[in-house]
Amino acid sequence: MGFIRNLLHFNKTMKIVTLVIAVISMVMLFMVWRSIQYRSLGQDANYKVPMRHYISGEKKMVRGKIKQALQEYRLAKKGLEALPEINLEDDFYYAVVLNGIGTILLRTGIYGEGKQAVAPEGGKLGMLPEKIRESLVYLRQSEKIYKTWLQEHEPSAEEIARLEASRIGKKEEDIVLESFERYQKGLSVVLCNLGIASRYLGDIKGAIAYYQEALVNWPGQETATDNLEKLQSVPPPAVSEKLEK
């Protein structure tokens, strides 16, 4: 993750930190999902077709094919909604897909789209506030899914202590995430995106609260830590003030 630190260090003025965080948020959640897909996804073949669209969308997102990525995410969402045997109100993969859609809309809202899109290096940000507001619909739904599951499956202090003891001496790559941990990390990523959206809609206090909550669910998360630090120490750009009006 060294490249993330370099990017964040480079963006001291926070002019492009939002794009960095938005992209990293997607990467983080994708890595969390990839780390457990062969363990849990393989247990239910019904997930495979919809989530293939999600993976395809990730690849297109990385290549900058934003519209095509959004189309793939929407296909994944539609596919999951067609599965009668899953409960969408607390389904991990549905939350992942909703966050994917929300992140693309958020990115579009900040940087525009098509010929009007600005380069990450500068230019006017927050070009399409209506897209940022649209992203909130999906991000908040994703947030609700994660929180619904966590409220119903919150581990006891004794269970957490036993889990931590069992991992002593193990390498990080050898640790298999428990269900509550992947929900916590997924929630943390969504909260980061909500923080970004709040910031560019002029709600700085709300953004700070989201980043703080993200760290509660994933202590030490680099993206939330760095973005919160800079948000508290650097005056927000003029774009945030305009969006607030």
Main attributes of the structure:
245 residues, mainly alpha, 0% strand, disordered N terminus, disordered C terminus
Overview of the structural elements:
- There is one protein chain.
- By secondary structure, this protein is mainly α.
- The chain has a single domain, classed as Tetratricopeptide repeat domain (Serine Threonine Protein Phosphatase 5, Tetratricopeptide repeat, Alpha Horseshoe).
- The protein has eleven helices and no strands.
- Helix 3 packs antiparallel against helix 4, helix 4 runs antiparallel to helix 5 and helix 9 runs antiparallel to helix 10.
- The chain is globular.
- The chain starts with a helix and ends with a helix.
User: CATH superfamily, please?
Assistant: Tetratricopeptide repeat domain
Helical stretch tally: 11
Supply the CATH architecture. Alpha Horseshoe
Largest sheet: none
How would you sum up the global shape? Answer: globular
Q: What value does the average pLDDT take?
A: 80
Contiguous uncertain segments of 5+ residues: 1-18, 35-42, 238-245
Please state the structural category.
mainly alpha
CATH topology: Serine Threonine Protein Phosphatase 5, Tetratricopeptide repeat
- Domain module tally: 1
Gap from first CA to last CA = 37 Å
CATH class: Mainly Alpha
| Rg from Cα | 18 Å
Succession of helices and strands: HHHHHHHHHHH
- What share of the residues lie within helices? over 70%
Strand tally is 0
DSSP strand content: under 5%
